[in-house]
Design a protein that fits this description.
binds iron/sulfur cluster, alpha+beta, globular
């Protein structure tokens, strides 16, 4: 075990690590300034268990109905050796009939529903390299592949929906999503989230090729989303350029390499350990856990509630500290360099003399204060 693993193990405590996945990677890019999230995810700490022990409301999960609908749609698209998918890809990517072949690596060499991730990864790797070297007939569709991506020195398993391999040797990642495309337009937020997930798969595929001395540019920036069309269950395939998401994720992953620095900033022995006591509940006093979390620097924004289970805890903490970030990204941007609401108010009413960097903002705050006072006088 490396010393980095050992230090992350101390931070995690007795529980086994939860691996990164495309969703956690996408969440990291949503708030790259949050050291707390970076540390918790790198250590593989179960945030849901933290939330339960902190006694704060658990985030709403997708309903079982919505999950079942998503699974049914994916099965519908990849049914019969990908038969419904092939015409969509043929149209989207210009594949010809004789190129299309299909392999499902969900269960490898057994009748089990799913083989272990490691085995599926080995199988995926061999299929992709074989196709890339063209020793066998190129695989056009690889269903349920498993890729690996290095995240902060760790290998994270990722499961794209499908990888398509085109005749000219370019790989494309395909994501099957159950949110609809209505009159050619998907929900922008959902499409961006799907493209960020796909970006993780693109980077993992590039890492695999690069590790085997193959050019990374054989994995396209163009990814394909397959969604229900309008309000039907008929699938439609749309090409998207995910270059921005790939660049963004790649930049953030390289920033994660400064994990040792983040760990150095913690007091020795800091841990989020939730080892159970005799009653099977975590033995750790809640206050101790809160204190351990407080040593990891957060960067709360109202957007956290969309991607992080700890949002209610971090929001309360930020409000108690009067952090400007609780007021949203626009206000945080306007008050750049001023961390607390108390400082902003003190600058506005003249109780605090601005530093040279704060002079322009202080002037704007005093102007806003005057307008507010005038309006209040008019109302009286
Ligand atoms: S909710 Fe907290 S831990 Fe999660 S990203 Fe936001 S600030 Fe970081």
């Amino acid at each position: 075990m490396s010393s980095l693993d050992a230090r992350l193990g101390v931070l995690r405590g007795a529980a086994p690590p939860l691996p990164h996945n495309a969703r956690t990677l996408a969440a990291l890019t949503a708030n790259p300034s949050c050291d707390r999230r970076s540390l918790l995810d790198a250590a593989g700490i179960d945030k849901d268990a933290l939330v339960a022990h902190l006694g704060i409301p658990r985030p709403l999960r997708k309903s079982q109905l919505a999950l079942d609908y998503g699974i049914a749609f994916e099965r519908q698209v990849t049914d019969q050796a990908g038969a419904p998918l092939v015409p969509l890809l043929r149209q989207a990517l210009g594949l010809t009939v004789d190129e299309v072949s299909y392999e499902d690596v969900n269960s490898v060499g057994s009748d089990k529903d799913k083989s272990p991730l490691g085995l599926r990864h080995t199988h995926t790797r061999l299929r992709i390299l074989s196709a890339a070297h063209r020793k066998t007939k190129p695989r056009t569709l690889l269903d349920h592949p498993v890729l690996r991506l290095t995240v902060a020195g760790h290998q994270a398993y990722l499961e794209p929906d499908v990888i398509a391999f085109q005749r000219d040797g370019i790989f494309h990642v395909i994501e099957i999503k159950s949110f609809p495309v209505v009159h050619g337009q998907p929900d922008p937020a959902k499409a961006t989230a799907a493209l960020t997930q796909a970006a993780a798969y693109v980077l993992a595929l590039r890492e695999l090729l690069n590790d085997n001395n193959l050019p990374k540019d054989r994995v396209s920036d163009t990814v394909i989303l397959v969604n229900p069309r309008n309000f039907t269950r008929h699938p439609t395939a749309t090409l998207y350029n995910a270059a921005q998401q790939i660049k963004h994720l790649s930049r953030h992953l390289s920033r994660l390499r400064r994990l040792p620095e983040l760990l150095d900033s913690l007091p020795p022995g800091t841990t989020c350990d939730l080892a159970p006591g005799p009653d099977t509940k975590p033995a750790r006093p809640r206050d101790e856990l809160v204190a351990a979390l407080a040593t990891m620097s957060p960067y709360y924004t109202p957007g956290c509630r969309h991607h992080c289970d700890l949002a209610p805890h971090c929001r309360t903490e930020a409000r108690n500290q009067g952090r400007t970030q609780t007021l949203g990204t626009t206000v945080t941007g306007d008050l750049a360099g001023i961390d607390t609401i108390g400082t902003a108010l003190a600058l506005a009413d003249g109780h605090l003399h601005p530093s040279r960097d704060q002079e322009a903002i202080a002037q704007a705050l005093r102007h806003a204060q005057r307008i507010h006072s005038d309006l209040q006088r008019d109302d009286e």
